[in-house]
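Priority: medium. Attachment 1 of 2:
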């Protein structure tokens, strides 16, 4: 987790903004009239402070309950956009990183695990990279997490919400399917009606369409697909069985786990 703390002239934990040290009076150096850096340092302090605030706000928003409403989705999107804007401001500022921080961030962005958050190919690691480019990479990766990672979870929540609502509708009919026995001490269940409704639900979610696919997140017309590697990665991430990985068109999708429902039908 990137931790930005208060910026000052002395070192602090977190991301440190380094400045060239002023020569002591005993050193023999050539003097020249140069513009004061006070104004630039003040701007850098403001940029760091704003970024730190936006990071805290984004953490609070993104760690909240997974959204299932448009209002919560908008709140998360706004938090990510504000944080990205603050990091873009840092990319254009004079704030620099220590050699260790530069290396750690560069290594993190070159790690294979980052591919989970972005559909675009990972850039090849470079020997050197500027501090401004690192801030820009942080901003881009946060945007990628919002679009390619949290977006998938939001889609999963939406699909499963509809699925469980349909299952709940079936359970609400149970009262009408229970009939008293001949002796008044037993109860009969209309098994045929229950099975028919459960089979209809299974058949509905066995079909691959924009309303039944968990990954990739669906939008617009048609069904979007992913590579087998990407689909298997999300299959593992969502802790779903292999039966939820399905080939479709030129790629693969991950669908709702119907195993418990199918077993229920078999056991009735």
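Attachment 2 of 2:
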């Amino acid at each position: 987790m990137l931790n930005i703390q208060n910026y000052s002239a002395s070192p602090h934990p977190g991301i440190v903004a380094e400045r060239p040290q002023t020569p002591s009076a005993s050193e023999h150096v050539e003097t020249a009239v140069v513009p004061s850096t006070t104004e630039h340092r003040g701007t850098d302090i403001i940029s760091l402070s704003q970024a730190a605030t936006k990071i805290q706000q984004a953490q609070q928003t993104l760690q909240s309950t997974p959204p299932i409403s448009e209002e919560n989705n908008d709140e998360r999107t706004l938090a990510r956009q504000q944080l990205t804007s603050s990091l873009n401001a840092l990319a254009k500022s004079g704030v620099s990183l220590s050699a260790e921080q530069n290396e750690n961030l560069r290594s993190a962005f070159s790690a294979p695990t980052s591919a989970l958050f972005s559909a675009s190919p990972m850039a090849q690691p470079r020997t050197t990279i500027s501090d401004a480019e690192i801030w820009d990479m942080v901003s881009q990766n946060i945007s990628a997490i919002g679009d390619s990672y949290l977006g998938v979870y939001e889609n999963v929540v939406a699909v499963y919400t509809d699925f469980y609502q349909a299952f709940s509708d079936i359970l609400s009919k149970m009262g009408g399917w229970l009939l008293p026995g001949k002796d008044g001490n037993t109860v009969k269940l209309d098994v045929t009606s229950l099975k028919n409704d459960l089979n209809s639900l299974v058949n509905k979610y066995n079909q691959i369409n924009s309303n039944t696919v968990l990954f990739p997140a669906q939008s617009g017309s048609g069904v979007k697909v992913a590579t087998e590697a990407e689909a298997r990665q999300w299959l593992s991430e969502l802790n779903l069985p292999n039966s939820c990985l399905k080939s479709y068109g030129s790629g693969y999708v991950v669908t709702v786990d119907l195993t418990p429902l199918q077993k229920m039908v078999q056991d009735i």
